[in-house]
């Protein structure tokens, strides 16, 4: 099972960067990792997507459709730039179970809608993240890849993560309408970027989380 991969297609993906205070970010990240700050603040990231046809390689069963909000902090593991996943909201119960078991995500329940003009996530306590998106003309600059990390039961794990490129990519101006879910996740206010990266058709691959120490 250690080589099993989860595969599918992100029919639509929205990625938005933000900034939070360094001290608050360090408290979230904990020991074993250093922050990878930008302009004196900690970089955080919301990676939201709608998935189609997710399956577990080598395991018979149905292909799963779902939506996910992945909340991350930019860190360094040794010399390697990485994201530390601090929360993972998923709208399908079976996928939450798989994510917690195989990938060791700190999963949460939420209702999620990801569209090219609007993103909405609402948790059972009515914490909300709502973005309005206005497509821009022009190309999207490539963003350097980062390793994917997660902490589970006090141990640090690395998640194999595919780097497939979406056939369609663009930028969108962002208006944040509600952000209480983000404030809950990052324990306070986030200064979000005014521009998001949007993708259609990105190949999604991730694997079993593997302990790396820390």
Question: How would you explain this protein's 3D organization?
Answer:
- The chain is mainly β.
- The chain has a single domain (5-211), classed as Acetoacetate decarboxylase-like.
- It is 12% helix and 54% strand.
- It is built from three helices and 16 strands.
- It has a 16-stranded mixed β-sheet that branches.
- The longest helix is centred in the middle third of the chain and has 11 residues, at 93-103.
- The radius of gyration is 16 Å and the shape is globular.
- The model has no long low-confidence stretch (mean pLDDT 93).
Secondary structure layout plus pairing:
Layout (H helix, E strand, L loop, with lengths): L4 E16 L1 H8 L4 E2 L6 E15 L7 E14 L2 E11 L2 H11 L3 E3 L1 E4 L3 E5 L5 E8 L11 E6 L2 E5 L8 E11 L1 H7 L4 E2 L2 E6 L1 E6 L2 E2 L3
Average pLDDT reading: 93
Rounded radius of gyration (Å): 16 Å
Assign a percent range to the helix content.
10-25%
Can you tell me the residue ranges where pLDDT is under 50 for at least 5 consecutive residues?
none
Please name the CATH topology.
Answer: Acetoacetate decarboxylase-like
- Count of DSSP H/I helices: 3
Number of strands: 16
Look at the helices and sheets and give the structural class. mainly beta
Please give a handful of descriptors for the protein shown:
single chain; 214 residues; mainly beta; Acetoacetate decarboxylase-like; 16-stranded mixed beta sheet; 3 helices; 16 strands; 12% helix; 54% strand; globular
Report a brief summary of the structure.
By secondary structure, this protein is mainly beta.
